[in-house]
Amino acid sequence: MDRYSHSMPNTSRTKSAVVTGAFSYSGVYIARRLLEKGIEVRTITGHPQRPNPFGNEVQAFPYSFDDPTALERTLRGSQVLYNTYWVRFPFGSTTYDTAVDNSLILFECARRAGIERIVHVSIANPSLDSPFPYFRGKAEVEEAITRSGLSYAIVRPTVLFGGSDVLINNIAWLLRHFPVFAIPGTGEFPMQPLHVDDQARLCVEAGASDQNMTFDAAGPETYSFAEIVSMVREAVDSRSVLIKVPVHIALNLARLSSLIAGDVVLTKDEMRGLIAGMVVSEEPPRGKTSFREWLHSNADTLGRNYASELDRHYRSGRAFPFNETQ
Ligand SMILES: NC(=O)c1ccc[n+]([C@@H]2O[C@H](COP(=O)([O-])OP(=O)(O)OC[C@H]3O[C@@H](n4cnc5c(N)ncnc54)[C@H](OP(=O)(O)O)[C@@H]3O)[C@@H](O)[C@H]2O)c1
Q: Which residue of 29, 297, 301, 306 is most buried, as measured by CB atoms within 10 A?
């Protein structure tokens, strides 16, 4: 691991952990690995009533950012907090600023509750100077953790695939349903996808360490966006024609697909971030799962159903889909 600083109390004998979002996407994999190690897991979620993939093994509590005493009570008794909380894009009254503020409330409650270590999931290439508000907000939250006085690991994934993933799944869904797929610009911007369970492994390993650390979590293979789309097209046996279009046209087509899907398929910032090569790492890859091999093993299920961000986070009552792919 890179960028160590001072040593903190050893938390490798963790008995109890809190995972935010253990009923959602990547948090499921973290919780599963912790349970396999015999660690008690609680979750904090915006949907405590959502079907619980762990039965009685994981108790759910609401985020209650507006009631820090309740949040502190939920965290008390655990040694490690695995934090996946963030918002993909601003929507309605939810903004990156509220996500930053809520993250800071969570960390302060963790400190007061006696949490010894935070494993925080960030993103590759965060920066306070980033032109992308997502990456700026992530950098602000990282800075708050390093100043919190708590022992920490900051894990910076590139882009995740596997399980109930959104991006790769929805590329496959579009390729299955539309006769044409528009690739923005040259399509030659790089992506280094990381399997969601590799991400969970790295988080759980980082949780057992006693060092402060910040590191990228990237997959073993790098492809251009155009290569990824071609590989997915071939895997799902799509006849969709791939065309390269100017970015502004690709954006308009993304808006049109959003209307058809009743979701936000890709935001302008997300497209600009992809084109700027934000989802790759310059560090040695820590993921082990080959995207190419995974794609071939999961081609039958990939993209059969659309993965809706708005259903998952803004339309209460909709169940979170689990494990369309492995
Ligand atoms: N997915 C990727 O490809 C990727 C790539 C790089 C970095 N990351 C980072 O990895 C972390 C986990 O990502 P994920 O995709 O696994 O996220 P997720 O499971 O969809 O959500 C993680 C947590 O954030 C909450 N959340 C998400 N959107 C929200 C919203 N709009 N309003 C309120 N709460 C919201 C979820 O609430 P509920 O519990 O109510 O669902 C859940 O507890 C995030 O910090 C993300 O920035 C993800």
A: 29
- What is the span of the domain harbouring residue 102? 16-162+193-217
Taking the CA of residue 167 as reference, the ligand 1 atom at the shortest distance is 3
Helices (H) and strands (E) in the chain, counts: 11, 13
Element (H, E) at 213: strand 213-217
> 54 with 114, same domain?
yes
147 and 239 together in one domain: no
Ligand 1 pocket, residue 84 CB under 6 Å: yes
Judgement on whether residues 180 and 268 belong to the same structural domain of the protein:
yes
313 lines ligand 1 (CB under 6 A): yes
Q: For residue 123, give the ligand 1 atom closest to its CA.
A: 7
- Ligand 1 centroid, distance to 85 Cα (angstroms): 5
Same domain, 151 and 60: yes
How confident is the prediction along the chain (326 residues), in pLDDT tens digits per residue? 444 344 444 445 799 999 999 999 999 999 999 999 999 999 999 999 988 999 999 999 999 999 999 999 999 999 999 999 999 999 999 999 999 999 999 999 999 999 999 999 999 999 999 999 999 999 999 999 999 999 999 999 999 999 999 999 999 999 999 999 999 999 999 999 999 999 999 999 999 999 999 999 999 999 999 999 999 999 999 999 999 999 999 999 999 999 999 999 999 999 999 999 999 999 999 999 999 999 999 999 999 999 999 999 988 656 666 666 78
125 lines ligand 1 (CB under 6 A): no
Number of neighbours of residue 37 by Cβ within 10 angstroms: 12
- How remote is the CA of residue 292 from the centroid of ligand 1, in Å? 25
In-domain check, residue 323: no
